[in-house]
């Protein structure tokens, strides 16, 4: 499975945040702190927790689990990096519209 429950919840939270930025203009200008937060969030924190939850779920009922069985889990890092890049582009576009 490509996404698990944690991933779907995070995508819903991201969608709600983007809707808040668009509708209520939460962020009025772009700055480096915003990009640093997005980088840390999508580059390290969210993928780490996503992998952690998936590994715990996968090994819960298994007596023996080898590394090859959980190889797909490590591809979540590039997926979340791609989602982070898309998020930066969306935020840039939404903030640019807010300025004008």
UniProtKB/TrEMBL annotation:
It comes from the Bacteria. The chain crosses the membrane at residues 6-24, 33-51, 71-96. Keywords: Membrane, Transmembrane, Transmembrane helix. This is Uncharacterized protein. It comes from Chryseobacterium arachidis. The lineage of its organism: Bacteria, Pseudomonadati, Bacteroidota, Flavobacteriia, Flavobacteriales.
């Amino acid at each position: 499975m490509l996404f698990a429950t944690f991933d779907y919840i995070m995508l819903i939270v991201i969608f709600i945040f983007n809707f808040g930025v668009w509708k209520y203009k939460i962020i009025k200008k772009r700055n480096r702190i915003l990009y640093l937060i997005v980088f840390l969030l999508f580059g390290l924190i969210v993928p780490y927790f996503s992998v952690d939850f998936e590994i715990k779920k996968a090994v819960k009922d298994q007596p023996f689990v080898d590394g090859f069985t959980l190889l797909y889990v490590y591809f979540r890092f590039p997926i979340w990096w791609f989602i982070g890049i898309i998020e930066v582009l969306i935020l840039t576009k939404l903030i640019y519209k807010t300025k004008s």
